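Re: the multi-chain job from yesterday

Posting the exact lines I submitted so nobody has to dig through the queue logs.
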Amino acid sequence: MIKVTELTKVYKGVTVVNIPDLSIAKGESFGLVGNNGAGKTTFFRMILDLIRPTTGNVVSKDEDVSKNEDWKYFTGSYLDESFLIDYLTPDEYFEFLATLHEYSTGDLNEFLNQFDELFNDEIRGKKKYIRDLSKGNQKKVGIVAALMGNPEVILLDEPFANLDPTTQIRLKNLLKKWVDENQLTMLISSHDLNHVTEVCERIVLLEKGEVIQDIGTSSSTLKELEEYFAAF
Amino acid sequence: MFATLLSQNWKEHTRSSVWAKSVLANIFLGFAAVMLLGYALILGVFLAGPIEEMVDMDPITFVNSALIYYFFFEFFIRFFLQNVPVQSIEPYLHLPIKKGRIVHFMLRKSQVSVFNLLAILIFTPLAFYRVGGEYGFFTGFMYWLMIIGLAFTVHFKTLYIKKKLNDIPNLFIILLVTISGIAALDYFDIVSLSSLSLAAFNYMLEEPIIALIFPLSWFLTYRVNYSYFVNNTYPEELITRKTQTKIRGDFGFLKRFGRIGELIGLELKLILRHKRPRNTLILSGVFLLYGLVFYPQPSYQEMEWMFLFVGIFVTGIFFINHGQFLLSWESGYFDFILTRKTNYRQYIEAKYYMFVVAAAIAFVCSLAYGFFGLKIILINLAAFLFNIGVNMPIVMRIAMNSPKKIDLNKGATFNYEGVGAAQFIIAIPVLFLPYIFYAPFYLLGYDIIGLCLVAGLGLIGFILRDKVIDKLTESFINKRHKIAAGFRAQ
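And the result, structure tokens for all chains:
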């Protein structure tokens, strides 16, 4: 689904990402872990063509993401608040996205209804701009928006951060369900080793922009990762 | 899609915290824009007719020879004031919308600008009334098209050059050298720009069809911008925010003055590291020269009462400018201020002394005006004392009334963030209060006594500064929750 070749990004002589070769298969749930500054977000931004790579490219569904914009039509993403149009209310934002994805009002309602549990009655029908929502609620809006339009690939940066424990668990189940039911290729980065090993079948560990470990998740993965980070 | 983007753009403005909170500033801005356009139209009518008698020249000849200067001037104004709102397209980049559409939208919308109306308003009357009258309607119409084409060409040229500045850091110098080179050639009569301009535009009057070049160049510059933006729609490349490699200011020496010194150091860092407060500081430096407008003029020598006003400005501009937003500057981390380990009195005291020192520095610099008469030094001394003793606490107190949030990372031009009712009334006491004491004596002919009274009041205020700071701290403590809630809510 996604193939990365010779991808590097250099800022002022410092290489922040250097991934010679990496493939992510369709339907795979891919977890990216690493300490701050490991290059996780930069890598994701390059997959979304938000950063111009210094060398190399990212090919999504046989098309180079920087060469044409086809990827936009099957990729959902939420990295940070700059993905939200923060002066709209959540309803307005969803309605805007609905027009992009050619949802009717009924489609939109049906789509949003499945997230009622996640929204916990704090998002829809409230007269509040996105910028006035709490960080956690902003994140909920962003993640649900990313799932709109039946994406084949979804990228989420730190989806569990800032969420309350109940929502973390609900989100975890939700993501697993989507991956199973829709053959969704999911890329998430997280500092929460517990969650990420539970949701993802494959874990890639980045350090200073380079892939240090690339492992399939097993019952011992969490322990191995904890040992690695403790010894860092 | 276009309509949706447009309506969202409109929402962005009307829902921005600045818009809603400062209706007054918006009305003022709108009024200023209407005035400006009104003046442009009046100038246009003037150019089309009455100018004949003033310059003793055919208006068309006059305008044609000046046109090139006008557009150079317009380029400069645009260069400093105009910008493409590239940041606002960031939330759309990952969505399934073609980049081209977003860029088209951004560029087309950018054309709706006061700057583009300016040239049209100034030259339309001439085009139809004069050119149309003398050379026929068709030529007049082509002349009008030419002006429109030129205005929009300049518009897109400016946008392109401003964006290119990021890629080619020396472009600004190249530009400066080129333009000053042309100016020098013109000045020393080697090449006359005005006759060049006259020749070119007069030729157009003979061959009106030639004017189509300009609408064409409008279209071409648009395409150039379009392809540039489409190929460079990466947020980190679009945003002109330069990454600062140098950390400005250490102010280690201030540590000697204890906690207060450190707080002043913090505030100085805030000023130096952000554009808007830095501009305020630079403006204060420029205002030191304000006296030069008044002192050398013989006509003002007879209006000596004006000089106290000048003195108040020259010695006090920094606290007037910076102090009116006293707490707003720190609105981004106000909660942090309330929770950290400084007592509120020290916090207020640090600001107080910073303003005193700034006023003192301004006063020392203003001593040079003694050149225009020793009386000026006396007036400035009285103004300085009155400023630190009376005006400054008043400004600080007014600024504590429901201050507005300021986002320090935003630019400075046309940024009315933080402006509220307080900022409009702040000038009143500052400028008029000293006259309440000075004017009666001045009118009776005892102006020295008036000055002494003003100075004396200021001195008393300064001597009682501990009490004054106590009072300020008290009102700060009483209002702190309201202020913090206000900053958070916006």
